[in-house]
Amino acid sequence: MAMKMMKVFCVMIVCMVVLSSYAEAALTCSDVSNKITPCLSFLKQGGEVPADCCTGVKGLNDAAKTGPDRQKACNCLKTTFKSNKDLKSDNAVVLPSKCGVNIPYKISLETDCNTVK
User: Fold this and answer.
1) Which pTM does this prediction carry?
2) What is the rounded distance in angstroms from the CA atom of residue 10 to the CA atom of residue 7?
3) Which CATH number does 2-10+29-115 carry?
4) Mind listing the pLDDT tens digit for each residue in 35-55?
5) Which among 45, 37, 35 is positioned nearest to 5, based on CA atoms?
């Protein structure tokens, strides 16, 4: 099942990379994917947050310095959640704080990424 999930995830990322070439933001969904891939086990099951997950979350936060980059990251995260039904939104909401990162929006399917500054 993990292999199937990774294949779906990789196909999704390739599509996003193609689409991201039209965006103004410098950050790509591939960048977002690379940063959050170590978090998948936590996003599915909760528990301990892997150290490499927090490294990725901090790196993503550092990379998303502009409004367009934050909007891009937000949209990429929402797309990931929509395509991976076994990821739990409650885990996503607490992930930044568990990693000691403060982001200016809630990681949620209900977040309107267009309003992220």
Assistant:
1) 0.73
2) 5
3) 1.10.110.10
4) 999 999 999 999 999 999 999
5) 37
